[in-house]
Amino acid sequence: MEPIYSLPLGKLGIFHVTMSIVIQWCVMLALILVALSLTSNLKKVPSRKQTVAELLYTSLKNFVEGNMGSNYLSYISFIGTIAIYILTMNLVPLLGFQAPTQDFNVPLGLALMVFVVVQGNAIVKSGVGGYLHAYATPMLPLTIMERIMVPVSMTLRLFGNIVAGSVIIDLVYEGLRHYSWFATLGIPVPLHGFFDIFDGTLQALIFTMLTMINIRVMAEH
Q1: For residue 42, what are the contacts with CB-CB under 8 A and spacing of at least 6?
Q2: Tens digit of pLDDT for each residue in 10-51?
Q3: Which of 1, 20, 162, 209 gets the highest tally of CB atoms within 10 A of its CB?
């Protein structure tokens, strides 16, 4: 994406602020405000917003426990944050903005973060010796490639699907403008429902599932 502002950092170079970064900041701010609102003034007899917060937490807890086991409940906040964050970014096009996940750097950054957590969890669960033992095999090159391909495949899957949906919608809008601007007001709505809502939700779920699977499998491998 083209930078909307460039911040000189001296010898470190130039930090380019793109629209995807601005939208991510807005998404993070919105999610923080929602989280603070839902978790403020908690009571024994829950209010409506507290009930929503408890329902969301219970759903995430059951989701993590069902896919990773009770030994991984400490990852509820991490898994939940990834799922909600990616889902919110994928729904941004409904507001008329480009999804930050269409910027290759965003899925790559998320995948690298998951990669670090996966390796860190494997070291904690198996110990340094047990972790290094997985590499001490005749299949060392394949083992290294297998682990490197995890963030690569997660990045390309999220980025590719979101970009593909955006390209199709843009082509439909471009074609409809040749006939009538009025046609662009209603005909693309089902496409937004499929690509932005359904596919956006699906890709957030897939990324989250792959995160959980890799955290558990890598520690047990």
Answers
A1: 50
A2: 777 777 788 899 999 999 999 999 999 888 888 888 888 888
A3: 162
